[in-house]
Here is the input.
Amino acid sequence: MAGTINVDIVSAEGEIYSGVAAMVFVPATQGELGIAPRHAPLLTTLKAGEVRVQDPSGEEHAFYVGGGALEIQPQRVTVLADTALRARDLDEAAALAARQRAEQALAEKRDAKSIAEAEAELLRAAAQIRMLERLRKLKR
Here is the structure.
């Protein structure tokens, strides 16, 4: 198909999405990337956030990734996520509870490893909450 790019989103749990897209948006560690067909090859890391896949009809599909790696080839985008969920599978109560646990762990100021783990959990929870809020605004 001219004007499309193949997209695969996978995690340790399995394949989350496979299909064609007109455009893909990913949360790279250096900022959000917009990927169109015939994009230059690139390897980079991802931070926790939202992957948006715009199919050829213009419909957008949203996915949460908890970090990972991204490979771009001119006709293929592969997201290798640490964790990945479809937007509809996000659990707001669990994200809020994770944020609260992480904030509590940071307040206790234990060893450096515990602090790093709590900061990472806080970033993942915050990314999920931001994604849920954005999706809620779109539905209005």
